[in-house]
Amino acid sequence: MSDDFSLLRDRSVRLFTFLRKFVEARSKVICSLDLYESVLWGNDFPDAPEVYSIAKKSDNPTSDPDLWFEVKKPDLKNPPSPPAEIESWLDPTDLSDKGFSSKAHRAPGSLTPLSI
Predict the structure, then answer these.
(1) Half-sphere exposure of 37 (CA within 13 A, CB side)
(2) Tens digits of per-residue pLDDT, 12-68?
(3) What are the residues whose beta carbons fall under 8 Å from the beta carbon of 47, sequence distance 6 or more?
(4) Pick from 42, 40, 70: which is nearest to 56 by CA?
């Protein structure tokens, strides 16, 4: 029985050692803030209802005393429908794009003047 336990323990230790070394090999250990691409300090967090930071001393949205910061996903509302006069200028896929990707605008000569 003790031989089975020793074998199982040895295999478990080797497995977890392998997993730890595997994760260490994939991750770059950073020991200085200067090595980070960018650093955002707690006081630099934006003042927004979706953002909680212990550095701002705002009300903790949860009862978790270990919470340092939290960024909630904003509740985006659908935009209003465009006026009929400009609807032909718009691409419906651009209106539904919540990724806010920038796209080239139409050339100024391609717009039709409005009749007032």
Answers:
(1) 1
(2) 999 999 999 998 888 877 788 888 888 888 788 888 888 888 887 666 666 777 888
(3) 56
(4) 42
The tokens for 36 are 């980070």
Closest C-alpha among 49, 48, 52, 47 to residue 64: 52
Residue 56: CB atoms within 10 A of its CB come to: 14
| Domain ranges for the chain | 2-71
How many CB atoms are closer than 10 A to CB 58? 13
Query: How far is the C-alpha of 103 from the C-alpha of 63, rounded, in Å?
Result: 43
Between CA 71 and CA 19 the distance in angstroms is: 31
Ramachandran angles phi, psi of 44, nearest 5°: -90, -5
Give CA 26 to chain center in angstroms. Answer: 21
Asked if residues 94 and 103 have their Cβ atoms less than 8 Å apart, the reply is yes
